[in-house]
Amino acid sequence: MYQLRELTLQNQDKEKRILVIDFDDPTMDIVSEFLMTDATLLNAVVLDDINAVLNEGRETVETSGNRCGLLIGKEYTEIYDLFADLEDAHSLASYCIKTTLLRTLIVDWLHELAEFKKERE
């Protein structure tokens, strides 16, 4: 379904290693982008929003981060690119994902990211 890989970014004499997630299905590029940017930024908040829909009876929750917006429903969540309407921006296609799968991916990603950072301390 997906692979994790380490990527080295270099800017002049500075180097930084980051963890990247790539899905086998290229239509899921926005999911990768969401996990690497906004899920990390919003981790507890977005999980609370998903849990509110899955467990607390909320119909839907709409939220956004810096790059992606989410329309969270009980069965499916739409992840869409906030850059879609910007001229000259590289935008990604929206993707609908099962809400329970998205929750699992967020939890797994945050765990993998924590382990990645822990190994580099």
Which structural class matches the secondary elements? alpha+beta
Helix content: 25-40%
| Strand and helix order | EEHEEEEH
Largest sheet entry: 4 strands, antiparallel
Name the poorly predicted regions. Answer: none
Task: Estimate the mean pLDDT confidence.
Answer: 94
Strands in their spatial order, largest beta sheet = 3-4-5-6
Beta-strand content estimate = 25-35%
> How many alpha or pi helices?
2
Query: What is the total tally of β strands?
Result: 6
Q: Ends: how far apart?
A: 29 Å
Estimated radius of gyration: 15 Å
Q: Which overall shape is indicated by the principal axes computed on the Cα atoms?
A: globular
Key features?
two-stranded antiparallel sheet, 34% strand, 121 residues, four-stranded antiparallel beta sheet, alpha+beta
In a nutshell, what does this entry contain?
With 121 residues, the protein is an alpha+beta fold. It has helices at 29-55, 99-119; strands at residues 2-11, 14-23, 60-64, 68-73, 76-81, 95-98.
Q: Mind sketching the topology for me?
A:
Layout lengths: L1 E10 L2 E10 L5 H27 L4 E5 L3 E6 L2 E6 L13 E4 H21 L2
Antiparallel strand pairs: 1-2, 3-4, 4-5, 5-6
Helix pairs in contact: 1-2
Can you walk through the features of this model?
- The chain has helices at residues 29-55, 99-119, and strands at residues 2-11, 14-23, 60-64, 68-73, 76-81, 95-98.
- It is globular and about 50 Å long.
- It is an alpha+beta fold and 121 residues long.
- α1 (29-55) crosses α2 (99-119).
- Helices cover 40% and strands 34% of the residues.
- β1 (2-11) and β2 form a beta hairpin.
- It is built from 2 helices and 6 strands; from the N terminus they run ββαββββα.
